[in-house]
Amino acid sequence: MKAIIQAENFASSLVGTLWTPIFVGIFVAIVVYALWPRNKSLFDAAARMPLRED
User: Which residues are listed as membrane-spanning (predicted)?
Assistant: First the structure.
């Protein structure tokens, strides 16, 4: 039983150690992409899309 608890603790620490920086990196990449000046025209066009009359 003690081995199962130790395995769960190891898995929990592994997830916290590996996945947290990966998800933080993904979040930072998304924010940088959204705020990059070159993408402004693309996002402005997407924002006006619901107001267009086809």
Answer: 18-36
CB 33 within 8 A of CB 39: yes
What is the spatial distance between Cα 33 and Cα 40, in angstroms, rounded to a whole number? 10
Domain ranges of the chain: 2-51
| Beta strand extents in the chain (DSSP E only) | none
Written as six digits, the tokens of 6 are 């130790």
| Upper half-sphere CA count for residue 20 (Cβ side, 13 Å) | 6
Distance CA 47, CA 2 (A): 56
